[in-house]
Design goal:
The chain has 293 residues and is an alpha/beta fold. It has one domain: Metallo-beta-lactamase, Chain A (4-Layer Sandwich), CATH 3.60.15.10. It contains nine helices and 15 strands. The chain starts with a strand and ends with a strand. The structure holds zinc ion. The site of zinc ion (ZN) has 6 residues, from α4.
Length: 293
């Protein structure tokens, strides 16, 4: 993705890795007609004529948002050395920090880390391993975490990757005194001076939020995991397998896509492959996407 400038905002993508599980594992109900419709505006070598022949290919990346001297990291990918049950992301080592350096930034330059939600693929780089201990990666940053997600995963008893991520990538930041637990619509808005704020986008996780940013009449949305893959613009009503509350997630997805189209938001999806950024357009009763550039 080329850097995107919107008024005083500058947005760059920080790539970590890609992962492509079989499509039916993540989204069931995609038909050959849906894939045909998708292919009119989205070509991807991991898509076949049927869902069974297709991967649900996702990019894992962060966005670096800079405005008025403030450098914000939106989402924090998987992180290195983290034990996970999913082989694709288990104890990975990726060029994430080298890619950060390629943006002429060091970990010390990040002022604020915003995790749209606390799933393992959005919190990993919050911490790094230091002499066998997990410590905050971005030593000067404040980290904003969704209070609803923090309380949900903090109480969870089932040992899964989200709980592992809570323990190795969220709790150490909180215990180091670097985290603020926030409700959507509150904290960031005041802190950054009307330019960047959080809105509720609950459903995929209990406290998932979208990050909105505005400058000079241009408005951007970082929608976290409200939408994962372009095929969901063709079939936004289908349930995604990691949605905590499928009905609420569906409503949030439909509302977000409609708004993105009607308000011509510049979208920065958490998992669309390069060039990632783009705009949602209405397409009959459903949607399509036009990548920037
Ligand atoms: Zn995700």
């Amino acid at each position: 993705m080329n850097p995107v400038t919107l008024g005083r905002l500058k947005v760059r993508k920080l790539f970590e890795m890609e992962s492509g599980p079989p499509m039916p594992l993540i989204l069931s109900g995609v038909t050959p007609a849906d894939l045909g419709r998708l292919s009119a505006w989205y070509q991807d070598e991991t898509l076949g004529a049927t869902a069974a022949e297709s991967a649900f290919m996702m990019s894992m990346h962060s966005y670096v948002l800079q405005v008025d001297g403030l450098t914000v990291l939106v989402d924090a990918c998987n992180g290195d050395h983290k034990h996970r049950s999913i082989p694709d992301v288990d104890r990975v080592q990726t060029p994430f920090l080298a890619n950060l350096a390629a943006l002429d930034l060091s970990t010390d330059d990040i002022d604020l880390v915003l995790c749209t939600h606390l799933h393992f693929d959005h919190v990993g780089w919050n911490t790094r391993l230091d002499n066998g201990k997990w410590v905050p990666t971005f030593s000067n940053a404040r980290y904003l975490f969704s209070r609803r997600d923090f309380e949900h995963f903090g109480k969870q008893e089932v040992e899964d990757d989200h709980l592992r991520a809570f323990r190795d990538s969220v709790l150490p930041v909180y215990e180091a005194g670097r985290a603020e637990l926030v409700e959507a619509n509150i904290a960031v808005h005041r802190e950054i001076g009307n330019g960047v704020w959080l809105e509720p986008a609950f459903g995929h996780s209990p406290g998932n939020f979208s990050v909105l940013a505005e400058s000079a009449g241009e408005r951007a949305i970082f929608w976290g995991d409200v939408v994962h893959h372009p095929v969901q613009l063709v079939r936004p009503e289908l349930t995604m397998s990691f949605d905590t509350d499928p009905e609420m997630a569906r409503e949030t997805r439909l509302r977000t896509l409609a708004r993105a189209a009607d308000e011509t938001l510049v979208c920065f999806p958490a998992h669309f492959r390069d060039p990632s950024a783009g705009r949602v357009l209405r397409d009959g009763g459903t949607f399509r996407y036009r990548f920037l550039g």
